Amino acid sequence: MGSWDGLAKKHQLRCVVPDKFALGGTGAVPLESRIEAWLDMVPALLAHLHVKHVSIITHSNGAIYTLNTLLKLRHILHPIRPFVAFLAPWVHTSHSGSLTALSLVPEGLLNKWPSIAKFMNTQVAPMFTFSGQMVNCITNSSLPDAQLESTAEQDYDPELKTIFPDLERLIPKLFMEGVFLLGFARSTINSYLENMSGGADEAFITLKRGDKWTWGLFEDTDEAISKVVSQERSLVSARNSSSNNSRPERLRIAVFFAESDIMIGKKGQEWFDQCWQSQDIADVVAYTSETVPKSSHETIGAPEKGIFARLFEEISLSFR
Questions:
Q1: What is the end-to-end Cα distance of the chain in Å, rounded?
Q2: What is the 8-class DSSP label of residue 1?
Q3: Backbone φ and ψ of 291, nearest 5°
Q4: Angle 307-318/2-10 helices, nearest 10 degrees?
Q5: Sequence-separated contacts (24+) of 46-54 with Cβ below 8 Å
Q6: Which residue(s) pair with 255 in the sheet?
Q7: Among the residues of the chain, which ranges form H helices?
Q8: CB within 8 Å of 108: residues ≥ 6 apart
Q9: What distance in Å separates the CA atoms of residue 88 and residue 300, rounded to the nearest whole number?
Q10: Half-sphere exposure of 49 (CA within 13 A, CB side)
Q11: Three-state SS for 284?
């Protein structure tokens, strides 16, 4: 966050990164209300900050929230040059075929997400560098059994062993397909100091697990994109029939895929691309997608990848 904020200031921009509910410093809401509450919170937050218009940059399962924002709060985008960027957007496993192990995790274990995250952060993660190499280490089962067994005596929620007795040995293998937990817990909040109880709800929503999950105004990404395109077409039609001389540009959607994304894989990336490109959108949406070299799902937004520098430069020009 600090590096993004500094970079934004260099481009005379303000970088606002709201915590999701029960994560960081934001309070909790019922699982089934997370999306609805987000759509209430965003305009309230912007009003509090005296911000009228924004460009949006979203990562991973933030795509679910962003597509809802596009449908419900389209007016918060720049009125002339509306812009949204998706970094490694989440695609459900039913389309990507990825994260098969995580998809099979018992719901009782998902409810223990914060405790597992603490276990991963304090016991497993310190043994490796948080990078693609760590994923390779875990995938190759190179974590010595002795080190795994030693974690049994460490301090984390003892109820985890009731739900998953072999937790210490299986977690590295279970999450080798994405290190979902690590990427979520370590890269977004300080899990030692701030709340992360909302992580369980995020898992239920992202994976469509349980009976209370909801993606808000749509059931899946393809439906959401179809609704966004339809909405844009209606906006363009209304503007063309009005006497207003302003001619806003098309909604700009920029998608950046990771070169190695074990969260959604190539299949998921192609599916997300196809959701946009299969429609006749050229008249209302300016869509581009590209792959960021030597990036993973977790590292695509790292400063050295240069994506945020490019995005902030484009956004800065839009607001001048």
A1: 24
A2: -
A3: -105, 130
A4: 40
A5: 46/16, 46/76, 49/14, 49/16, 51/14, 51/16, 52/76, 53/77, 53/78, 53/79, 53/319, 54/16, 54/78
A6: 86, 289
A7: 2-10, 34-48, 62-72, 93-96, 100-103, 107-110, 113-119, 132-139, 145-150, 159-163, 167-174, 180-188, 199-207, 221-240, 265-277, 307-318
A8: 163
A9: 7
A10: 15
A11: coil
List pLDDT tens digits, range 105-118. Answer: 666 666 665 566 55
Spatial contact of 104 and 156, defined as CB atoms under 8 Å apart = no
CB 103 within 8 A of CB 175: no
Mean pLDDT for each consecutive 10-residue tract of the chain (320 residues)? 76 88 80 93 95 95 96 96 96 84 63 59 46 35 39 44 49 42 40 61 86 94 97 91 77 97 93 93 95 93 93 90
Classify 286 as helix, strand or coil.
strand
Residue pair 316/12 in contact (Cβ under 8 Å)? The answer is yes
**Per-residue pLDDT tens for 2-27?**
577 788 889 999 999 888 877 777 78
Asked whether the whole model's pTM tops 0.85, one would answer no
Q: How far, in Å, are 24, 83, 162, 229, 264 from residue 273 at the CA level?
A: 32, 17, 42, 14, 12
Residue 40 in tokens: 């209430």
User: Which is nearest to 130 in space by CA: 184, 197, 191, 200?
Assistant: 184
Contact 163, 108 (CB under 8 A): yes
| Radius of gyration, CA atoms only, the chain | 20
Q: What distance in Å separates the CA atoms of residue 258 and residue 256, rounded to the nearest whole number?
A: 7
Residue with tokens 């992580």: 199
Tell me the pairing of strands 56-59 and 285-296.
Answer: unpaired
d(CA 276, CA 298): 24
Closest CA relative to residue 200, chosen from 217, 215, 181: 181
Sheet with 83-87, side-by-side order of all strands: 56-59, 83-87, 251-260, 285-296
